[in-house]
Design goal:
The chain is an all-alpha fold and 126 residues long. It has helices at residues 8-11, 14-40, 49-71, 81-97, 103-125.
């Protein structure tokens, strides 16, 4: 909801502003926790606290929303909710600590791009 959709009288209310302050407390706390993790070295130093917090928060919301459907083990799904939870936590920790090698795919993409350029030039020279 945008501010334009809120009645101006509500926007001027001191109670509305107090409610907003309360609403933003978990966000402030989360950003502070990420900042402390960066400071103590348990979280990668190049991460931005705000972006990192919102990314973690959105991943947690997604995990919670998907837990029901993934927990149902039908013919198609071979993942138990518990295995997914453990994998999710491990991936999150690796992402924050920096143990995932994100640069590897870039090397592969670069070599594929160079091969594409070689092939493209061969056919253009004909």
């Amino acid at each position: 909801m945008s501010r334009r959709e809120i009645d101006p009288l509500i926007l001027d209310s001191i109670h509305f502003h107090k409610l907003l302050e309360i609403h933003h407390e978990p966000v402030k706390l989360g950003i502070q926790m990420v900042s402390l993790g960066i400071k103590d070295g348990s979280i990668r130093p190049e991460l931005q606290p705000e972006i990192t917090f919102y990314t973690i928060w959105s991943m947690i919301i997604g995990f919670e929303k998907m837990s029901g459907p993934v927990g149902f083990e039908g013919k198609e799904t071979k993942v138990s909710a518990e295995a997914w939870k453990l994998g999710y936590i491990k991936l999150m920790q690796e992402m924050l600590r920096g143990t995932i090698q994100a640069s590897r795919p870039a090397i592969v993409q670069t070599s594929l791009f160079l091969k594409y350029q070689d092939i493209k030039h061969k056919y253009q020279d004909r």
